[in-house]
Amino acid sequence: MKNQAIFERAQLSIPGGVNSPVRAFKSVGGTPRFIARAEGAYIWDVEGTQYIDYLGSWGPAIVGHSHPEVVKAVQEAAANGLSFGAPTEAEVLLAEKISELLPSIEQVRLVSSGTEATMSAIRLARGFTNRRKIIKFEGCYHGHSDSLLVKAGSGLLTFGNPSSAGVPEEFVSHTIVLEYNNLDAVKQAFAEVGNDIACVIVEPVAGNMNLVKPKAGFLEGLRDVCTQYGALLIFDEVMTGFRAGPKGVQGLTGIKPDLTTLAKVIGGGMPVGAFGGRRDVMQCIAPLGAVYQAGTLSGNPVSVAAGLKTLEILCRPGFYEKLTATTSALVAGLREKAAKHGVTFSADSVGGMFGIYFRESVPTSFSEVQDSNVEAFKVFFHAMLEEGVHLAPSAFEAGFVSACHDEAVLARTFEAADKAFAKVAAM
Ligand code: PMP
Questions:
Q1: What is the CATH number for 88?
Q2: Catalytic annotation on 320?
Q3: Could you tell which of 264, 265, 266 is best to mutate to test the pocket of ligand 1, judged by most ligand atoms within 8 Å of the CB?
Q4: Largest CA distance in the chain
Q5: Is the distance from CB of 16 to CB of 31 less than 8 angstroms?
Q6: How many angstroms separate the CA atoms of 129 and 139, rounded?
Q7: CB–CB of 146/124 below 8 Å?
Q8: Which one of 258, 282, 315 terminates a domain?
């Protein structure tokens, strides 16, 4: 009742009652849980109900919620002042740590969100190359800046259409939207307008159309064609950075992007984003160069403290081995329960992120993701929630596992899934 009461009150003062749209349960229906606290693998709502959490704050909560060392680091930093608007040594330590872990990043600039990171990286790519056009892929999300809120047009080079009201067509007229995993389309676009393409931005493992992995050769092909035409390759690792593996997808594949965008994990639950990469490119940013970019709270000392401690924890021996094994065991267990109940289902994972799909096989593109049984997902989602398991409230989002998700947590998840798949089978 309290969740419902707060949701009703929230809708009076906040549009839709939420500060980010997917939180509103719009695509699954029902009442969002208003969260009171979180610890380890669990969240508790305002009614005191405990849930196993597979949202993980949409990625940041990789070491588990309220990790005592992270909380202590935040408290200590806060006691020294919340924000100075002047540089701190801790920012340098975080920049050095990011560069050490992701060697493609020779220099890095901290911002406060993933949206800022990608928006700034695109401006930088355009400023560096002195070109206008960018390529993005259908189903990849890179934050909500104007030129990235685009859906595919009707043909390859009919440029994308705005996917949000309030974005004039002219603002996206230089954004080319192509199918994920379709290298031929990329080559064709470059063949036609390659000398005006500033960059290709890609989620190297997509996590915003559920989880979609790159096909063999796709990312390598992007690297080659960008190099051939002098365009920059931007890996948007806001979600995958320190989540898909210790060195992001670039570490898993050995492919070196020119620029990388980060957020989520590097802030450990506090607002931090970053973009970085080749030194010659990064030197084009103000105050050194002509590409402007700034932020009152960029490199915020409390956020940086949370990020530094989080990176320290996930660099400890065995961290990713355990996280990856847990996540694989999770999807294997879910597949098994679905099969037991004869539900059409597939699942996949990389590092500490996973996708579940109510379709026969793992999807490779946005249109394949769309071709899944959304009604089945809704039933599954609500049945899991009733059993105390909080999944992402949409069939088109990835899920996240933390270091605190242990065997007992998985066992409880499988018990819940057994009942939830039974409900799906009875639909
Ligand atoms: N890029 C990717 C790959 C993301 O997953 C997100 C957020 N889900 C963003 C950019 C935007 O980040 P933020 O929400 O911090 O602005």
A1: 3.40.640.10
A2: no
A3: 264
A4: 63
A5: no
A6: 26
A7: no
A8: 315
Ligand 1 neighbours by CB, cut-off 6 Å: 58, 113-115, 118, 141-143, 203, 207-208, 236, 238-239, 263, 273
Q: Residue length, the chain?
A: 427
Last residue of a domain, one of 263, 297, 315: 315
Number of domains in the chain: 2
Q: What is the CA radius of gyration of the chain?
A: 21
> Which residue of the set 51, 54, 141, 180 is catalytic?
141
Pick the atom of ligand 1 nearest to 273's CA. Answer: 15
Q: What is the chain's pLDDT, residue by residue, as a tens digit (427 residues)?
A: 899 999 999 999 999 999 999 999 999 999 999 999 999 999 999 999 999 999 999 999 999 999 999 999 999 999 999 999 999 999 999 999 999 999 999 999 999 999 999 999 999 999 999 999 999 999 999 999 999 999 876 555 556 788 899 999 999 999 999 999 999 999 999 999 999 999 999 999 999 999 999 999 999 999 999 999 999 999 999 999 999 999 999 999 999 999 999 999 999 999 999 999 999 999 999 999 999 999 999 999 999 999 999 999 999 999 999 999 999 999 999 999 999 999 999 999 999 999 999 999 999 999 999 999 999 999 999 999 999 999 999 999 999 999 999 999 999 999 999 999 999 999 9
CA–centroid distance, 425 to ligand 1, in Å, is 34
114 CA distance to ligand 1 middle (Å)? 5
Q: Do residues 221 and 236 both lie within one domain?
A: yes
Q: Which domain holds residue 174?
A: 69-315
In Å, how far are 50, 124, 263, 271, 327 from 410, measured between CA atoms? 15, 43, 27, 29, 9
**304 and 226 co-located in one domain:** yes
> What atom in ligand 1 is closest to the CA of residue 118?
10
**pTM for the whole structure:** 0.98
213, 264, 309, 378: which is the annotated catalytic residue?
Answer: 264
Tell whether 236 and 300 lie within a shared domain. yes
60 Cα: distance to centroid of ligand 1 (angstroms): 11
Euclidean distance between CA atoms 265 and 62, whole angstroms = 7
Residue reference for tokens 């800022």 = 116
Ligand 1 mean position to 33 CA, how many Å?
A: 22
